[in-house]
Specification:
Belongs to the binding-protein-dependent transport system permease family. Its main location: membrane. It is a multi-pass membrane protein. It holds the Pfam family BPD_transp_1. By secondary structure, this protein is an all-alpha fold. Helices cover 71% and strands 0% of the residues. The protein contains 13 helices and no strands. The protein has helices spanning 2-34, 56-62, 70-101, 107-119, 122-135, 143-146, 154-164, 169-177, 182-193, 195-211, 214-219, 228-234, 244-276. Helix 2 packs across helix 13. The radius of gyration is 24 Å and the shape is globular.
């Protein structure tokens, strides 16, 4: 029995190791390609060990194009990501508190409407939003990428609302007896207790905004305002020779913030999602 148990455990570890290698292969290939000469990237596509280590790809890639370095692109991206994340998390928490704790006319109808927006593909609202932002003269600004987040994100609203429902309502009643109004109950009681769900929402928002390509592509036209995702696309020039080595090098660098956020805050992802599903 012990031998069978050991074999079973060894088999599980082998399967896990194989799956890990399969999932990590694209990242390893990307790092390897970032150190190859541009003309050899696809010639040596099956080799993970470069014939020559071209670390200068990172310096060349960081210079960017048109006199605009990746320092500018990273600054633009962080500006959009931070403001959009803060707006999305704060507004979603407030709306979630309203759905979870307040009683008002048409509550179920508005909740259904919110869920319907969650199910709508982004392509459906793309044209109406562009027309609206064009009328506001917000094209080629960051407002279309930031302003809508201050009205809540359906997925985050639902996630935080489920988390709030796990909090005993007796805490609200006790705080009300002590003289707290609705705002103070939310600020002093609910908000500190839903930090895991808020952190989970912030992490997802960071991922989505950092990787967003379509939004900046539609609304930004000045290279000096480009985000990292658009800047990476500029390396691929169909009318000239693309510098694949520099492009892949900047792709590797663009992964660093995402990886750091995941490794430092992964416990909040697990805690926020698992606790939100304890009570419907």
């Amino acid at each position: 029995m012990k031998n069978a148990h050991r074999l079973s455990g060894a088999a599980r570890h082998v399967i896990a190791a194989v799956l890990t290698l399969v999932m990590l292969y694209p990242i390893v290939w990307l790092i390897s390609s970032s150190l190859k000469e541009s003309s050899q990237v696809f010639v040596q596509a099956n080799s993970l060990i470069p014939q020559g280590w071209h670390f200068e790809n990172y310096a060349i890639g960081w210079k960017g194009f048109g006199g605009i370095t990746f320092t500018t692109f990273y600054a633009n991206t962080l500006f959009v990501v931070i403001l959009a994340t803060v707006g999305s998390v704060i507004s979603s928490t407030v709306v979630a508190y309203g759905f979870a704790r307040l009683r008002f006319r048409g509550k179920k109808l508005w909740f259904i409407c919110m869920l319907l927006t969650l199910m709508l593909p982004g392509e459906i609202t793309m044209v109406p939003q562009y027309i609206m932002f064009n009328e506001l003269d917000w094209i080629n600004t960051y407002w279309p990428l930031i302003f809508p987040t201050f009205f809540g994100t359906p997925f985050f609203i639902f996630l935080i609302m489920q988390f709030i429902r796990t909090i005993p309502y007796e805490l609200d009643e006790a705080a009300t007896i002590d003289g707290c109004n609705r705002f103070r109950v939310f600020y002093r009681i609910i908000a500190p207790l839903v930090v895991p769900a808020m952190m989970t929402s912030a992490i997802f928002s960071f991922y989505w905004r950092w990787d967003d390509f379509m939004g900046p592509l539609i609304y930004l036209s000045s290279p000096s305002k480009y985000t990292v995702s658009l800047a990476l696309k500029m390396f691929a020039d169909p009318e000239a020779v693309s510098n694949w080595g520099a492009m892949f090098a900047m792709m590797v660098v663009s992964l660093i913030p995402v990886m750091l956020v995941f490794f430092f805050f992964q416990k909040y992802i697990v805690e926020g999602i698992s606790t939100s599903g304890l009570k419907g």
